[in-house]
Amino acid sequence: MNKKITRKKLLIDVLSIQTASGNEFDMIAYIHKFCQENVPEAKVVIKDNNIYVTKGKSETYPCIVAHTDTVHDIHKYYRVFDDDGVLFAFNAETGKQVGVGGDDKVGIWIALEMLLKEDNIKCVFFHSEEVGCVGSRNADMDWLKDVGYCLQADRRGNTDFVNSISGKLFSKAFSKRIKPILKHHGYKETSGAITDVGQLAENGIGVCVANMSCGYYEPHSDEEIVEFDDANNCLDMVEKIVEELGCNKYEFKFETRYANYGYGSNKWGDFEGASRGYWYGNYGYNGSTTDKEVLYDEQTGVESCYYCGCEELEPSEFTDESTECRYCPTCESDILLKMKEVPDPNQIQLELDEDEKEWNKSFGITDTDYKDISDSYDDSVEHRTIVNEYLKTK
């Protein structure tokens, strides 16, 4: 069977499992059963609702990170649809679209695909990320001692490779090593908001970690969709990064750039354990595939962080010629206010440096292979037609 078809089938299977913060048992059971049936040689440990999976024997392992919760309600009549590669969900009882949970079911799918492909790898699935990185704050750090680096796919869009979450996440040497791979797949380094790998860095994991866009859009809303080609491009990139870095350790000491504002080790402050209802809404959506992370009240002129609602935003050192950012002191994140006019990041530049040329040569890639990697999803896709046809038959 065609690899892309097989991949899409597994992604739809994962998206079809409903899960919410504090009600993640079906997803935990699904991952456990998947490993038993498809990766029987892997050792699976479920501890405090986190899932730790080790495949192979190695002194050092690459590690893929994901989280098992979403912000969405559990629906009795829930089904995932595929409209020419745009994956979305509907409640067949109400006839209304509901969130498909690409955040972070796409990350789970990438981790499972990597378990199938790699001989030596670790994967960890943390619970309750959406309500304060609860699982990763309480991670078994002894299990992570032989991890060489961590990759997480838990960001909307299709171009961001996060290098900082309130502090640098990886070294210049790590960045240089993977730079040609990022460029080939249409990615660029940027700052980002808190997620599990950032929490692991704060825990003192001591190695390079990164988060990245993985093809879901409008997260935390009923209009959430997953663009399969973008998700698949991310998976291809993760495979190439692991192939390039191998089972080696890339040490890096994380140092936060900011004080913790009296919240101790919990950068979420009093948002730990917040009800899922807090997170609902189409946060920051500005009518395009570039979603703002800073909300602006036109009546009061107040800017606020959509992750935690903080209204005391500060200038960010990550503002540059392509982006304007703010720093949120509550969740200690550099967040996006707006994108500036820059060339399309999906158009790969043909002017390559020597590192990129050498990497391309090792994989048999020529200059003529460079083209537009992926088309951004726009909301003109007529995906309701297929749903209406389905509902007529019920």
Describe what you observe in this structure.
The protein is α+β, with helices and mostly antiparallel strands and 394 residues long. It has two domains: 3-245, Aminopeptidase; 269-339, no CATH class. Strands 1-2-7-3-8-11-9-10 form an eight-stranded mixed beta sheet, with helices on both faces. The two termini are 30 Å apart. The protein is built from nine helices and 18 strands. Strand 12 and strand 13 form a beta hairpin. 26% of the residues lie in helices and 23% in strands. The longest helix has 18 residues, at 228-245. The model is unreliable at 259-290, 345-350 and 369-381 (pLDDT under 50).
Briefly characterize the structure:
The protein folds into two domains: 243 residues, Zn peptidases (Aminopeptidase), CATH 3.40.630.10; 71 residues, no CATH class. Strand 12 and strand 13 form a beta hairpin. About 13% of the residues have low confidence.
Furnish the topology, listing elements before pairings.
Layout: H1 3-15, H2 25-38, E1 43-47, E2 50-55, E3 61-67, E4 78-83, E5 86-91, E6 96-98, H3 102-117, E7 121-126, H4 134-137, E8 147-155, E9 160-164, H5 172-184, E10 188-191, H6 196-203, E11 208-213, E12 216-217, E13 225-227, H7 228-245, E14 294-296, E15 303-305, E16 314-315, E17 323-328, E18 333-339, H8 354-362, H9 384-392
Parallel strand pairs: 3-7, 3-8, 8-11, 9-10
Antiparallel strand pairs: 1-2, 2-7, 4-5, 5-6, 5-13, 9-11, 12-13, 14-15, 16-17, 17-18
Question: What overall form do the CA principal axes indicate?
Answer: globular
Give the low-pLDDT segments. Answer: 259-290, 345-350, 369-381
H/E series: HHEEEEEEHEHEEHEHEEEHEEEEEHH
Physical arrangement of strands within the biggest beta sheet: 1-2-7-3-8-11-9-10
Question: What is the number of independent domains?
Answer: 2
Number of helices: 9
What is the structural class? alpha+beta
Helical residues, percent = 25-40%
- The oligomeric state is single chain
Gap between N and C termini, in Å?
30 Å
Report the top-level CATH class of the largest domain: Alpha Beta
